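testing teh design pipeline on a random one, pls ignore if ur not involved
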């Protein structure tokens, strides 16, 4: 059995700064080199197949492994307390790497019924074309996962907190249920980051991040990563990295590594700002409902306190006529950008209408739709609270909302 524990002797801020990095042995350069070379000169012949790779192989070709990307992999593995990590070109490349390399025709996948739109569409529309059966359940209750398990269930896919409702999944409880049935647990932990939650320590097998969000943190580089056991990551590197080919660019790895160094400090500030904004919105006359794991009004606040060391910077809120308000905010906001994406130093806001979301991504019906509407109403604003002064963000919303 693989044991996943972060190096507890070292603080998380030290790990974020130094994890995976070391001064260059030749030049002594203190910050990581950006190695853009696609190929590497060697003084002996080597095998031409990815299956010849072993732990001691030097660098050969950058799709197989790149020195800059490898330093990022090591830093992310250290932050999550995992044995290994493989970085990809985007969060979706990381998610599809896990789904396609581990599932085969005849397998059954249990996935959260609301999650990142790209993942929702991939599991609903693409996996069934490969005869992979998918059950979509509300993973905020572990009993729903238990009820959906079958003999063919190979994997449970979670996202916590989930986009856009900030619904949580009890990772420890669900991992126990899934493992008893012989299924793997993969979790998209993008909203939480390793500062809030370490899913491997709670029993998950694979952690997925969109590095484009908090870990990169500055809105200037796409990237994704999977963290897990050493053997699993070596297999994922061969199958998905080398053979599917969606590897991260060394330049993006370099930018994201620079961002990751300040992740603990930024998450502290994101959380601090989000708490101020969540309370401001809760008191605002035009706001009907605020969803933020750090508020006592969040339906799973107790689980949030247990499972998250930081409540992160993502808030969802409802107003009376959301669509009209979205048009108003898009024109009038002066500091907060009306834009998709999240986890950047700049605050971002975007309207997610329930009708449009059901048509394009979630397609929930009956009780599942009722349960979504109970949280989201006709739609939600998703606010990613950046690193600006919280008082300025409140003033910006105040003047724009009217
Ligand atoms: C953005 C996001 C993704 C996809 O990541 P990309 O880097 O845009 O491909 C996946 N999951 C979550 C939760 C996200 O927010």
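output:
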């Amino acid at each position: 059995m693989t044991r996943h524990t972060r190096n507890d002797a070292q603080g998380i801020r030290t790990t974020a700064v130094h994890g995976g990095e070391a001064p260059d042995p030749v030049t002594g350069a203190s910050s990581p080199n950006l190695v853009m070379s696609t190929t590497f000169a060697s003084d002996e012949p080597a095998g031409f197949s990815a299956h010849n790779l072993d732990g001691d192989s030097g660098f050969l070709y950058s799709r197989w492994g790149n020195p800059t990307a490898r330093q990022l992999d090591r830093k992310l593995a250290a932050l999550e307390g995992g044995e290994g990590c493989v970085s990809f070109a985007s969060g979706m490349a990381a998610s599809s790497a896990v789904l396609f390399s581990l599932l085969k025709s005849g397998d059954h996948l249990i996935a959260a019924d609301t999650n990142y739109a790209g993942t929702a569409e991939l599991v609903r529309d693409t996996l069934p074309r490969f005869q992979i059966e998918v059950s979509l359940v509300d993973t905020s209750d572990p009993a729903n996962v238990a009820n959906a398990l079958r003999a063919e269930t190979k994997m449970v896919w979670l996202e916590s907190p989930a986009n856009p409702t900030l619904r949580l999944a009890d990772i420890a409880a669900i991992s126990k249920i899934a493992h008893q049935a012989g299924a793997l647990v993969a979790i998209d932990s993008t909203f939480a980051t390793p500062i809030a939650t370490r899913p491997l320590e709670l029993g998950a097998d694979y952690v997925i991040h969109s590095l484009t969000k908090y870990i990169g943190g500055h809105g200037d580089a796409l990237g994704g990563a999977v963290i897990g056991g050493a053997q699993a990551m070596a297999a994922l590197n061969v199958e998905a990295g080398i053979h599917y080919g969606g590897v991260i660019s060394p330049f993006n790895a370099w930018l994201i590594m620079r961002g990751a160094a300040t992740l603990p400090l930024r998450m502290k500030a994101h959380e601090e700002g989000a708490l101020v904004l969540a309370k401001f919105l809760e008191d605002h006359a035009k706001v009907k409902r605020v969803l933020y794991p750090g508020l006592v009004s969040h339906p799973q606040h107790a689980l949030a306190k247990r499972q998250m060391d930081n409540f992160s910077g993502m808030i969802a809120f409802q107003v009376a006529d959301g669509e009209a308000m979205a048009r108003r905010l898009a024109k009038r906001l002066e500091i907060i950008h009306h834009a998709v994406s999240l986890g950047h130093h700049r605050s971002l806001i975007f309207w997610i209408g329930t009708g449009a979301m059901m048509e394009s991504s979630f397609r929930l019906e009956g009780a599942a739709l009722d349960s979504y509407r109970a949280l989201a109403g006709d739609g939600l604003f998703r606010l990613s609270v950046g690193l600006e002064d919280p008082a300025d963000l409140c003033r910006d919303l105040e003047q724009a909302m009217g």
